Amino acid sequence: MVFETTRFGQIEVPEEEIIRMARGMPGLDHLRQFVVIPHPVQPSPFLWFQSLDTPEIAFVLISPQTLIPSYQPDIPDETLNQIEVQESDKVAVFNVVNFTDNGEHCFANLCAPIVLNMRTHAAIQVILDEKRHPVRHELFVS
Amino acid sequence: MLHIVRKKGEAITIDGGIMIHIVDLEGGRVRIGIEAPRSIGVYRQELYEKILRENEQALKSVDAIDKLRLPEKPHGV
């Protein structure tokens, strides 16, 4: 299927790569379809989470596995149920990135990761315990 | 807004599928038990709003990705 996006122009997304949010992200309840796009400038730790409903909406994500190896959040069973995770399914976790205006600092939201069922491509932004997982974890501190 | 007076041990039912129990009252605080379908997200309002604002702010800030000078080492938790 072909979608319009502000940042990437017209993109073609195979049906099986469309990510469907089981529940809208806080503040963005109406946006239910996204696709993950690698950052065009490589190498980069960043991915884009492009809305397929609203062309101008695109988040920057990181995959915490390599960037923050100590980040091992426990995803509640009810969240896994909502994205229909079965025993053999692989689950991917991503964090939303927030930049300061001048690009000097960037933060990953460890409290509210996006959890993706790699088989069904159902996803959800879950809210975890803020005391254990901060909303703003600074990346690339020199 | 609908106001309902309840005592400890009483409950409210919403739309047949959600039950709010008044579990305990002490010193100006109330302990609430919530029974809801798994598809319903139940969060403290202030945390939900914090995540909502963080999502909005993240969307506004994405253009700064082009100014970012990478990296140094990632900062472990």
- Given as residue ranges, the uncertain stretches of chain A (5+ residues, pLDDT < 50) are none
Q: Biggest β-sheet of chain A, characterized?
A: 7 strands, mixed, barrel
Number of helical elements of chain B:
1
User: The biggest beta sheet of chain B, please?
Assistant: 3 strands, antiparallel
Outline the secondary-structure elements.
The complex is a heterodimer of chains A (142) and B (77).
Chain A: E1 2-5, E2 9-12, E3 19-21, E4 33-38, E5 46-51, E6 58-62, H1 64-67, H2 77-82, E7 91-99, E8 106-108, E9 114-117, E10 122-125, E11 137-139
Parallel strand pairs in A: 3-10
Antiparallel strand pairs in A: 1-2, 3-4, 4-5, 5-6, 6-7, 7-8, 7-9, 8-11, 9-10
Chain B: E1 11-14, E2 18-26, E3 29-35, H1 45-61
Antiparallel strand pairs in B: 1-2, 2-3
Structural summary, described in words:
The complex is a heterodimer of chains A (142) and B (77). Chain A is mainly β and 142 residues long. Helices cover 7% and strands 36% of the residues of chain A. Chain A is built from 2 helices and 11 strands; from the N terminus they run E-E-E-E-E-E-H-H-E-E-E-E-E. Chain A has a 7-stranded mixed beta barrel with strand order 3-4-5-6-7-9-10. In chain A, strand 9 (114-117) and strand 10 form a beta hairpin. The longest helix of chain A has 6 residues, at 77-82. Chain A starts with a strand and ends with a strand. The mean pLDDT of chain A is 93. In chain B, a hairpin with a 2-residue loop joins strand 2 and strand 3. Chain B has a 3-stranded antiparallel sheet with strand order 1-2-3, with no helix packed on it. Chain B has 1 helix and 3 strands. The longest helix of chain B has 17 residues, at 45-61. Chain B starts with 10 loop residues before the first strand and ends in a 16-residue tail after the last helix. Chains A and B meet through strand 6, helix 2, strand 7 and strand 11 of A and helix 1 of B.
